[in-house]
Amino acid sequence: MTLKIIIHDVGHGQSIHVFTPNGKTMVIDLGCSSDFSPLHWLKDRTSTIDSLVITHPHGDHIDEFLLLKGLGFSVGQIHRPKWLTQDDVYKQNQSNFNEKLDAYFDMSDRYCYGLSDGENISRSENNGGVIIKHFYSPDCGVSNINNHSGIVYIEYEGSAVMIPGDNEPPSWNKLLEQPDFLEAIKKTDVFMASHHGRESGYSSDLFFEKPHLCIVSDGRVQSTDATSRYSHHAKGWQIHHRSGKASEERFCLTTRSDGSVDIAIGKGSNGRFLSVTVD
Question: What is the mean pLDDT of residues 183-188?
Fold first, then answer.
């Protein structure tokens, strides 16, 4: 039984697909690039998204929202910062994203009721034994919706991955006041950098316990880059290559230079494993 997490290479954006051991599908954000559509890739494998997570409604995180309907996906549940008003969101996005934002708010309104325990795939008994937790900092001001980004914590067979949105220090400071979040940070083996590795998303206070590996979803051109800082905070992990190149110890991966990142967590004949593969 294996948990698979795929961090797609979408340039300046974010798109992550999670496949649980019992066949459930979670999609975290809907970024894409000019030459790659994660939703088209997913459609070749399934038409069901059991859980859709929009960390926050900025254009590069909802870019493929219209394709959910266009490709005929069935969405079981949605996690999003639902307290943000339309005014909060529209004025912090470019006008060319308005149609996608309209679809986002339409879906958000239709998913206003809670799920029964048997329907919620965030519960371990419904997803093959995976621990999934969602963390938010809703008390931050709304002048910067990056600080309302949700964080997804995923744990299976003793290994854990943490995936934020574009959280910045005011958000991290609020989250670090939450005991459950502190416990999650302590257990995290793979930490995904906030705000595509920009300095604005970096907080040294997060690394009182070092993860084994940090991952940055970034584009080919960025004005700022905190990759070296994330490398400094990681313990290191053995990375495999699809190309057949010899495995190597790495501290920080970037989709910019390493392509998509495949994470597999499970338990086999040789015991528990956490495997990371790149191009």
Answer: 98
Contact by Cβ (8 Å): 130, 20: yes
**Rounded Cα gap, residues 235 and 188, in angstroms:** 12
Q: What is the pLDDT of residue 150?
A: 98
Cα–Cα distance, 93 to 74 (Å, whole number):
27
As for how many domains the chain has, the answer is: 1
Closest by CA position to 29, among listed 19, 17, 41: 17
Question: What mean pLDDT is reported for the chain?
Answer: 94
Q: How far is CA 40 from the centre of its chain?
A: 18
Each residue of 145-178: pLDDT tens digit?
Answer: 999 999 999 999 999 999 999 999 999 999 999 9
Q: What is the pLDDT of residues 264-275, one digit of tens each?
A: 999 988 899 999
Count the Cβ atoms, other than its own, within 10 Å of residue 234.
Answer: 21
Measured in whole angstroms, how far is the alpha carbon of residue 231 from the centre of its chain? 19
Task: Specify which residues 79 forms β-bridges with.
Answer: 53
Counted residue by residue, the chain has a size of 279
Sign of the dihedral through C-alpha 1, 80, 175, 151: positive
Give, for 21, the enclosing helix (H) or strand (E).
Answer: none
The pLDDT of 171-191, averaged and rounded, is 98
Helix (H, G, I), strand (E, B) or coil at 20: coil
What is the span of the domain harbouring residue 203?
A: 2-115+122-278
Helix ranges (DSSP H) in 147-264 = 169-175, 179-187, 227-232, 255-258
What is the token pair recorded at 113?
Answer: 């009721």
Contact 250, 213 (CB under 8 A): yes
**pTM of the entire predicted model:** 0.96
Decide if 251 contacts 236 (C-beta within 8 A). yes
Beta bridge partners of 153: 133, 162
CATH code (residue 271): 3.60.15.10
Work out the pLDDT band at 222, boundaries 50, 70, 90. low
